[in-house]
Amino acid sequence: MSRLVVVSNRIADPRKAAAGGLAVALKESLQRTGGLWFGWSGKIRDAPDTSGGQSDVQLQASGNVTLATIDLNQQDYDTYYLGYANGVLWPVFHYRLDLANFDTHFATAYRRVNQLFARRLMALLRPDDVIWVHDYHLIPLAAELRAMGCGNRIGFFLHIPMPPPLIMAALPEHEWLMRSLFAYDLVGLQTEIDVTHFTHYVESEAHAQRVGTDGLRAFNRTLRIGAYPIGIDVDEFTALANAKEGRDMFVRMREEYSRRRLLLGVDRLDYSKGLPQRVHAFRELLAHYPENHNSATLIQIASPSRGDVGAYEDLRRQMDSLCGAINGDYGELDWMPVRYIHRNVARRRLPGLYRASRVALVTPLRDGMNLVAKEFIAAQDPADPGMLVLSRFAGAAEQLKEALLVNPYDIQGTAHAIQKALTMPLEERVRRHDALLRRVREQDVHWWSSRFLDALADTSHGAGD
User: Fold this and answer.
1) What is the pLDDT tens value at each position of the chain, 465 positions in all?
2) Which of 2, 45, 362, 405 is deepest in the core (most CB within 10 A)?
3) Is residue 465 flagged as an active site residue?
4) Is 159 a catalytic residue?
């Protein structure tokens, strides 16, 4: 059996409960093959790299899985990570060209760090390893590995959206970036819409030819591409809900808000999440549906995110102002319409919070998938479930069609959907939730991982000239 080698910007110990969704998804495959997980350690060293790309790799055993990490220096962190990955690719791929900083030094650093990753990784590879690269930080990694003589089977999964061709073409390096993807054997995207965007781009910009049902040929290589929507570990999340902290949170919230109906938002503080629009919609709900006064309470958790980027500090000030204004205009001595929390909430407490909520608001302006929507569904009481209000611009909307789908830019329309969710009869809520939960279970994180790796194993390898 070939060893699985996972490469991502950051890694996590798959044995730890708080390791996160990607670790949960990859745990079985890594352990089954005695795999290797390679990435940045999260540490920034003061001194420049003098190792020539061969040393400075820290190895740690996690059962039969090897965790391999490297450090970055301050310059690479500022230019590769903050500069290009999060200052260029993140806003462009989320349709925010106005927030992108197209500094040519950032693109140069992005390629340099990908070359660094490739050099360090090459020394650890075996001839029959299967390599799975993750996300926008490492798009050109396979091209750099191929240039160093790597002939292994390599797959790539993009966790964020793929923008339409004209938005992608705004990137000064767009041709090089998309050409780099053709060094992979298989590219996985979250949704069929993402596949369509990528296909239209390479057809219009690179005159790609379709090969079979899911192949594209351009740049003298044939690439297989498909939609592989990532899921959650439903059983693991259900276990969290039934654990002590999950049950305690549910009981505490139900007792504290026994006379209220809870609406819940759980997000990173990021401009892609549509948080100001969501708060405006809640204000519209209070203005046009006064029966919700002294009744509906929005709990908005916005965990800190990239505080050293100016756009995020501006967003934080905006959210502070909007939430304060609603509480000032509508609040009573015994009722605050909005509870705004700008800090992390422990994952083990979230299932109880989800279950106590009548409505979840998952309304990003653009999102690759959004697993909060799926976690909310998994946490509900099937006999009396809460309702999901979901942005049509979240990748999850392709799968979760029984949710109330909204356009987050339409403030009045979103407010109307929230009112519908709050007043929906039990029979309809149960029917919708049953269909949603069945799909979340069928297409869970294990289905996602197996489906991608099976497709990679079946891909015709070495299709380049």
Assistant:
1) 799 999 999 987 776 655 456 777 788 889 888 999 999 999 998 766 555 544 489 999 989 999 999 999 999 999 999 999 999 999 999 999 999 999 999 999 999 999 999 999 999 999 999 999 999 999 999 999 999 999 999 999 999 999 999 999 999 999 999 999 999 999 999 999 999 999 999 999 999 999 999 999 999 999 999 999 999 999 989 888 889 999 999 999 988 888 899 999 999 999 999 999 999 999 999 999 999 999 999 999 999 876 566 678 899 999 999 999 999 999 999 999 999 999 999 989 999 999 999 999 999 999 999 999 999 999 999 999 999 999 999 999 999 999 999 999 999 999 999 999 999 999 999 999 999 999 999 999 999 999 999 999 998 765 454
2) 362
3) no
4) yes
Radius of gyration of the chain measured on its C-alpha atoms: 23
Provide the sign of the torsion angle of the four alpha carbons 230, 218, 366, 312, taken in this order.
positive
- Among residues 394, 340, 400, 387, the alpha carbon closest in space to that of 364 is found at 394
4-231+446-458 is a CATH 3.40.50.2000 domain: yes
Distances in whole angstroms, Cα of residue 319 to Cα of each of 139, 295, 323, 360: 33, 22, 6, 18
The amino acid sitting at 427 is: E
Distance CA 250, CA 236 (A): 17
Helices (H) and strands (E) in the chain, counts: 17, 16
* Residue 121 CA from chain centroid, whole number: 25
270, 367, 416, 446: the active-site residue: 367
- Residue 69, beta-bridge partner list: 39, 58
Strands 186-189 and 209-211: unpaired
Q: Where are the alpha helices (DSSP H) in 357-409?
A: 371-379
**CATH 3.40.50.2000 in the chain, residue ranges:** 4-231+446-458, 234-442
Please report, as a single letter, which amino acid is at residue 204: S
Q: Read off the tokens for 243.
A: 């654990």
Q: Which residue has the tokens 């091209």?
A: 143
Class of domain 234-442 (CATH, top level) = alpha beta
- Catalytic-role residue among 49, 56, 78, 159: 159
Per the document, the length of the chain is: 465
**Distance in angstroms (rounded) separating the CA atoms of residues 64 and 30:** 8
